[in-house]
Amino acid sequence: MIGRLNHVAIAVPDLEAASAQYRTMLGADVGPPQAEPDHGVKVVFINLPNTKIELLYPLGEDSPIQGFLDKNPSGGIHHICYEVDDILAARDHLLTEGARVLGKGEPKIGAHGKPVLFLHPKDFNGCLIELEQA
């Protein structure tokens, strides 16, 4: 059901510093910051030949990323994102298998302009999973 790895997301305490580190130390292709108010984050994508890295920074006090950074002040891997051909079919299959979809269970539009859902980390070996419509 899952397709290619779309991105690995890393929560960071300083978006500008993390972006500069990837750009200068690693020579990466670093995109511009973009606010995603529906998700409570500001993101920067690092473009790699085979996938992307998504740097996440809290957008406001109610951001889920702020809670993550409160527990992990240096930042860290927050989630991994897989592509699926049909996000609603994937959701329905996962629900019948007993997985928990976070939020209201309805896809939201993500940073790439495509529908996304998040799956509870307790159902996937402690890893928060994002599914994105391919």
Explain what this protein looks like in three dimensions:
The chain has 134 residues and is α+β, with helices and mostly antiparallel strands. The protein has helices at 15-25, 64-71, 87-96, and strands at residues 2-11, 29-30, 34-36, 41-47, 52-58, 76-84, 108-109, 115-119, 128-133. It is globular, with a radius of gyration of 15 Å.
Order of helices and strands: EHEEEEHEHEEE
Structure class: alpha+beta
Apparent shape: globular
Q: Radius of gyration over alpha carbons?
A: 15 Å
Low-confidence sequence ranges:
none
- Distance between the ends: 12 Å
What's the total number of strands?
Answer: 9
- Average of pLDDT: 97
Tell me the β content. Answer: 35-45%
Output the number of helix runs.
Answer: 3
Percent in helix? 10-25%
Largest sheet: 9 strands, mixed
Which helices and strands appear, and what pairs or packs with what?
Blueprint: E1 2-11, H1 15-25, E2 29-30, E3 34-36, E4 41-47, E5 52-58, H2 64-71, E6 76-84, H3 87-96, E7 108-109, E8 115-119, E9 128-133
Parallel strand pairs: 1-5, 6-9
Antiparallel strand pairs: 1-6, 2-4, 3-4, 4-5, 7-8, 8-9
Summarize the model shown.
The protein is of the alpha+beta class and 134 residues long. The protein is 22% helix and 38% strand. It has helices spanning 15-25, 64-71, 87-96; strands at 2-11, 29-30, 34-36, 41-47, 52-58, 76-84, 108-109, 115-119, 128-133.
